[in-house]
Amino acid sequence: MQYHISDKIAPLKPSAIREIFKYAGSNDVISLAGGNPAFETLPVEDIRKLTAEVLEQESKTVLLYSQSAGHIPLRNALKDYLSRRHGFLKEYDDLMVTTGAQQCMDLTCKVLCNERDTVICEDPSFIGSLNCFRSYNTNLVGIPMEEDGIHLGKLEEALKTEKNVRFIYLIPNFQNPTGITMSLEKRKAVYALAKQYDVMILEDNPYGDLRFEGEELPCVKSFDEDGRVVYAGSFSKILSTGIRVGYLVAPQELMAKLEVAKQCTDVHTSMIAQLLCHRFLTERDIDAHISGIKGVYAHKCGLMLKEMDDRFPKSVTYTRPQGGLFLWVTLPEGMDGGEYATRLVKEHKVCVVPGSAFSVKEAPGSRNIRLNFSSSTDEEIITGITKCAQLLKDML
Amino acid sequence: MQYHISDKIAPLKPSAIREIFKYAGSNDVISLAGGNPAFETLPVEDIRKLTAEVLEQESKTVLLYSQSAGHIPLRNALKDYLSRRHGFLKEYDDLMVTTGAQQCMDLTCKVLCNERDTVICEDPSFIGSLNCFRSYNTNLVGIPMEEDGIHLGKLEEALKTEKNVRFIYLIPNFQNPTGITMSLEKRKAVYALAKQYDVMILEDNPYGDLRFEGEELPCVKSFDEDGRVVYAGSFSKILSTGIRVGYLVAPQELMAKLEVAKQCTDVHTSMIAQLLCHRFLTERDIDAHISGIKGVYAHKCGLMLKEMDDRFPKSVTYTRPQGGLFLWVTLPEGMDGGEYATRLVKEHKVCVVPGSAFSVKEAPGSRNIRLNFSSSTDEEIITGITKCAQLLKDML
Question: Residue B377: which CATH number?
């Protein structure tokens, strides 16, 4: 039969990353494309022990239905964690456990936006979030990035001219895909603009704990005086991506609606995963664990940058991230990131993501690619970058 | 600040069941309100062992990102299971793993419906699905139930007169909330009507395996000749509700879109839960396990019915389900289900769900309540029904 596909879903294409992920599964391909944490940083032995304990001691809680907002002890432990590490939980805020941080974007957009309402994003930005906002038929407006984050002048211009702006979507720390960190000044300025134009902010901070260089900066949420900032966090990069546990901080009034939306979506998040996170947060030394991860990523990022410095032609530029998982490469003028990525995987069996995947609007001829340094071994990084460099020389 | 809530979410109230669930948590309340399976039917020891094995033997697969459509070995095992037990998997069909069956409704509605498109439902129907369809601003049209399922004449009338009908939502086996099973004749007739009026069917079958009386009937999906039926299944009632694993069967062409929607929603379902389900399906005797559950539910349902037969006034009527978890009570004329449920919990500490919660449109003065027989002990069933009867006599 002929299927009627909704206007919101019909134009969406599968995420280029998710597609490449299928491809990157073959053993002879080096993937610098994904967004996985380094497997060796995951506390596998702890996960085994804690999961066994949870199933032994709390089987009824794990195996039956629970509350949509999440397992209460986990919610409380997360509130403590955020207060202690990020110092921003306000009295008027509440916290909900989500099925990965992706669900934070899904629920926030569903609750705040009618079709054709405007969402303002950094451009480029994380494709998973962009596609999520698109899947609600929103009007996506991209604001270019500068070295210290979103372009303030263009942001204000958009706030002035666009209709029904519901929120500004930001990844202030080690942004995906660029690796850029928003400066303290800009964090304050963006919050002030949001206040001036009375719009909300959705702050996505999946990599916030993974700073391996420079000084910690306060979250935008920490400036929040009037419940204007919704905050999305994740266990993906410190515990496991596969378990799918994230969390959303929002003012209570809004949370009531987010909870209804969560009920309609998946009732609640998987309890094995929630109780595992709870035990990990409360029974292990999470600060020491995070310190360990930082050391690994400092090394991997440093190695990748060194290889690029040594091997890439001078006409290639790239960001030098202070944390997170990604760096952003700008190819020489006239070179196309899509063509480069295609040739790279076909001729050299190295996967990277073409920058156009992260563009808010179609971006033919984008000169960018995104590289991931977290999930490869040292050897793979060296071989991968050597092959990247080889193709660059071939194409120049 | 003043929050802008989207038109689709603003009118939604929290699910009455989810709210009662919060309340039913106290130890001195007998809950006949929830939808949990009997805890004693869950294979807790197997779940412990299999989860430990998965984390021991497949830790990388469990802890890192995976494919949005689900873990391939689980998808294959489910296809085998459905072919073997329900005999309906078609060549053109594909299967996706979802975060509980609730997500099947979410993704199907998102992919098929624009705002104000029509979804036809049995009336009453499962509140979680109704709220999900509402959360996409659809035009919900309810068709009354008869003893053998949906009213065919009124269904055809709706198909003739309503605009942009995208699908008919059905729970053919032991429907939630009524416990009614659709007859074979009606299953065929509904499929024929869907074909005649060229609309799709979303067949929700969470309780299909739990028939403890009468003969198995083929799924509506088994009549599907042209990819018109999307099928939702679940591990909730046979393995665990808390792990949140369901699955969706749909024609490949539609599945491509459902997979994009899944990417936008939660990337993929929690891998610990998926791999546990895979091992349980492939390494344990699921047929024997299901037989065991049926025996428990036959007993519990029989006990509840016997207590009701013995104690309820003759002016109270109720369904006698052949499977599933619920039965549906019609109170004497002039009695209100909402008032009854409120007095029951306040005066007698017994929770039931007022029937109005399951109505497609507001239903003031609904005479119904839903009773769950699966999750209480024999003693709780006897005490609970005794108190129900006492209040009935008080109110008559």
Answer: 3.90.1150.10
